[in-house]
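Session log. Operator J.P. requested a structure for one protein chain; no other inputs attached. Running the standard single-chain path with token output.
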Amino acid sequence: MENMESAKKIHHVGTVTLGISLIVSGIVCLLRVFIPKIPVSSVLRLWPLMMIMLGVEILLSCTGKKKFVIDKVSVVMLVLLVLFIGWMACTEVFVNYLLPHI
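Structure written below.
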């Protein structure tokens, strides 16, 4: 019983940041479908915001009495999200600018 209570008090830092980052990235990519003038690279420019959100989440977790651990899976997913969006932006540049000239 005591292990269950201590497990509930642990906050996994990074899960909120990952959720917000996925929602914002998804919204911008969805807007891209309806408004083609929005470059995919605009999502890539938001990567500093992801780091700021992660830092704020860590600072807020330190102020509470709950124990916190950095969720390694969420941090890895954030890095993969940034790399994927970068790959999409490079693909967009290749298809729109370089491919027509070949």
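Operator note: The longest strand covers residues 10-13.
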